[in-house]
Structure formats: C-alpha cells, structure tokens
Design brief:
- The structure is a single chain.
- By secondary structure, this protein is an alpha/beta fold.
- It has a single domain, classed as 3-Layer(aba) Sandwich (Rossmann fold), CATH 3.40.50.
- Helix content is about 45%, strand content about 15%.
- A 5-stranded parallel β-sheet has the order 3-2-1-4-5, sandwiched between helices.
- The longest helix has 13 residues.
Length: about 170
Amino acid sequence: MTSELYPRHSAKIKSVDELSVIVREARQAGKKTALAIGSFNILMYHHARYLAEAAEMADMLVVLTNSDESLKAYKNRSGTYVAIPEAERMGLLASFACVDYVAAFGHLHADQAIASIHPDIMARGGDYTLETLHPPERALCERLGIEIRFTPLRHYTNTGRFVREIIEKGR
C-alpha cells in the first residue's frame, strides 16, 4: 500500500526500528522529538488538533498507530472494529504537514515501541491524565526520562461511541 501513496507521504512511513535511529540522530543534532500515539481508527477533528498541538512541543513529531492486529485486539474489547486499514491510516497521518514520521506498533500497548524510539516527549491527548495513562507506559516514561505532556481538551468526540451511534442509526 505504501507504494500507492503520494511519494512525500510514503517517505514519512517508517518501522519502529527505523524511527529509533532517526530519533537518536535527531537528539545528537540537538533536536527534540515528541511522540503522539493513537489508534486513529476513524480520523476526527480532535485527532488533527492533538497532532498539531503535539508538533508544537518539539522539533519533530513522530506518530505511532496500532497495527491492524493490535487494533482488533484493543478495539474488540469495546465492540468496534478496524474501520480504516493500517496502511491507509498511516498514509492519512503522513499527509499532515505537522507529522514528520509515522509507524505502526504491533502490540496491545505501545510500551515496546516507546522504549525503542525513546522520544524526548510523549504527547497524549487531553482525554488522558497521568492517572489514566496505561501504568506500564507511565512507568517506562518515568524510568527513561521521557517527559509526559498533555494537549488541551478543546474538542473531543469519542470515536467508539460515534461508530456505535452510526451503526444504531443504520438499523
């Protein structure tokens, strides 16, 4: 699928291993990296705000999205499904000017990818607090010295609820 994307967008799509090298080289050059994480199963306005505000926190913004397999495992617990396939989600995310790089992670949680990439800042949306972060993710950031920041919660639509409402209205 990445070969079908606009070339500038496909160049932004990397593996977690590639991003660990890119972020390390950026740090050596004196640049800070912010990491944004989300399923982005249905891209909504609050996602665009989140990414734009996360990008303002550092010199470079890296975005992690769930692989299709991890999204199915994560979302199936809440009754939703993969609405946009992984390659298309990564292409959409890569199309944002504020996004420097995108990768998918293949586990239920992003802990391993965070450890590998080791950003300077982990940017989470305003729908999170330190108390609601996945505890191992929070502990990992504290242990590695990754600053945790939250974007303001200005506009938020619960995507899972949104999908369920569409399905219900269609019945």
